[in-house]
Here is the input.
Amino acid sequence: MTSSASLPAAPFTERKAKLLEIGSGLVKAGGADEIEVVFIEGRSYLTRFSRNHIHQNVGTEEIAAVIRVVVGKRLGVATASSLAPEALAGAREEAVAIARASDPVDDWPGLPPPRPVEPLDAYDAATAEASAELRAQMAGAIILAARGKRGEAAGAVEVEEGTVAVASSTGVAVAGSSTRAEVRTVVTCGDGSGYAEGLSSRVGDIDARSIGRRAARKAADSRNPQPLAPGRYDVILEPSATAEWLEFLSYIAFSGKNFDEGRSPFSGRLGQRVTGEAVTILDAPRDLRGLPQAFDYEGMPTERLTLIQRGVAKAVGTNYYRARRLGKRRSTGHGLPASTSYECLPLHLFMKGGDSNLERMIRETKRGLLITRFHYTNILDPMKTVLTGMTRDGTFLVENGEVVGPVKNLRYTENVLEALGRIDGLSRRLVAAKGPCIVPALRIRDVQFTGATEF
Amino acid sequence: MKAFLDRACDLMRQAGATYGDIRIREDRKQEVNVKDGRPEHVATERFAGFGVRVIVDGAWGFFGTHRLEESQIEPAVRQAVAIAKASASLPHTPVALAPLEPAVGTYVTPHQIDPFAVPLEEKLALLAAATKAMRGPNLKLAQAFASAYWAHQHFASTEGARIEQTIIQTGGGIAATAIAAGDLQVRSYPNSFRGNFATGGWEYVRAMHLLEEAPRVAEEAEALLAAPPCPEGRRTLILDGGQLALQVHESCGHPIELDRVLGMELSYAGDSFLTLNKLDAFTYGSPHVNIVADATAPGGLGTFGWDDEGVPAQRTPIVEAGRFVGYLSSRETAPAIGRTSSGAMRASGWHRIPLIRMTNVNLLPGSAGRLEDLIADTDDGLLLATNKSWSIDNKRLNFQFAAEMCREIKGGKLGQLYKNATYTGITPEFWGACDAVCGPEAWALWGTPNCGKGEPSQTARVGHGVAPARFRNVQVGVRA
Here is the structure.
């Protein structure tokens, strides 16, 4: 058995201080020209239910110490899952050995120098202390709502608290704690199914009963779906569907690494029109409606970054290395842990809304589809942002301004930036959806559906 | 270690668990990425901890911690029990596990060269040389990858099982990315998304001959840029090993997971069209289609000694001459079909519960000889090679997959090169249209290292043995 230094169980402020103390100690111990230590620790609990009972229920406490060293512009990264001094020293030595075996990165700019980080109120004690009983009660409320429609509920209630601390040889020393609560459910009523979700840094903000009722109502309404031929349809995307497209756009287009390597559809096109004027997409990591984050995994402050403004490509998210390669003095605060090769990515997407609402969008649709969410989206052509995926858990035909009934699920294959160029309605109300994304409902003309399934 | 395991089992019994198990696990991982002749990302990870899983009052609870200390056993058991009691607070049918003779034993992945003992300099030299050998006027990225995984686990259950297991997995590959005029084409070898993977040692990567294959891979990426898009229509398809492995994974491997069938994954990955009433009573494919789930296949990425419930590795018939005959199952789910567990419960680490995962879901070889023989036997069709994109509905019926490369077949010979080839279908119709599977001489194991499932999410490394196969009258391209 190995021994491990222990973290105070509570309060979280002491955990932050302890992690910074350990990180700073490791940095001071040296062993490389530059060194950065990132601690990511937390406790997460997830109660999963299906067929109206809890079938999986788990809790974990985890820690990762990601150590990045630089030896004469040669880089190495090693991760340990312990705070034990021998484990951390071992990881540092492993990182140094990797660096010594590697070639120098000629344009390495050094680790980023410290910048002031404005703290955020992202920690909610009630969420951190949410008990297994509370999670069961929330699952029970959803199940009750499903039973009210003679349905069955499946889903998850998840709560998490964690602390991230970054210390480096350039003087970076920041730590922050946060909480997260997510509830999602699929309710089935015979051959109908409905989805609803809620997400917040505060578990008290999530109304499980309301989420259950929304999903149950949709499940009941989507019974006996009728087949519909593939083709082009106007669509109304509910926020969960909008969020899925945005997440994929971020992965394809908004990464500073992809941009730098010429693999982003934005490569060489900043300042050019890439989609319609109705589209303004930001990264908003400090928005309290989502899951706010005060600094990235290099310890750099996060800030709003406009990615697309009125249809024009404006920026991509970078870490310090990519920022300097792209001729910028500072990173945009989108660095990922050095243990991943993705490097940088906007993770708190925000899409500006309009002046419409879901009901009005339905009223204004002569013939189209109301789509709750997508399933198994994947990339067919990254440079053209062509995605494919299925509809799921509530797809309805709209005719002459009214929802006339459920339809069997369809496959779309669509150039998403082009499709967003055909938006003719955005809801004023924005919703926090999985991602996290803060997004409106959208109405889009002529979306291409290329296949159908049997349910 | 014995005292640690015994103590946990004693505490679980004392706390009222009718069943309990503990997994103490250490993981090592090394990823080496080289780009354009230089190391791009080299990283190692070590994770260690333990997780306890209990049934109390007929319901499950689990708690895992990185604090691998004897003093943490009691708090972890206490947490797991409290969580189980909360599970039991809602109406439920008590969990009943299929019977199992408790196993005592050890297993180590057969291997020749420990991938973690190979000097990093040797790996970097091989990968750098391979990337330097990929050249072309439009080649913007030449990448090479090597990966190594080591997992050492002690498993003990309150039923008396005591298993020590070491799994070693190794992989590697190369990829050439050509970009011009707003088009991007990738060609990979031996498979896309970081290459191919197996249980075994560094000898597996050495045998790939990455350096020798690199020039061809680069040439094909360049050629794809200049190639026309694949025309839409209904065509005869031959899928090569890499593409067919993905087809098996998505359209057979996932829908045969019995937890999906029972709705346990409904809200996330979905359920399955292979409902219980279809067992032994459904035509999944043509008589050419024979599929097994085989955790004993030497070298398979999903090969082990016991699963993470202590069930021995086994070979389970899934499809026999086109007829659907079996599921991947667990001790909890197997009673639903009146069988014992097929030994498919696997966890991605100490911090996750085991879920039903693919082992090696293999399409058995047919009698169509080598790939060249099958091409020669095809008058008019398309050969699709190496997966590029995948998407399938939540019951695993409607799929649409894309391949990196497509070659037309005319009169039994390969012809025109096409890019951006996609094909789509409905799973049982597609497998029903299979009219030939290549023979044992063309059969190979493919590793899928990125299979996602579960909440919290888990990534599993699973295997698929296939020989290239032919499918008739398949929709190619998008028909809007």
Summary: The radius of gyration of chain B is 23 Å. The longest helix of chain B spans residues 210-226.
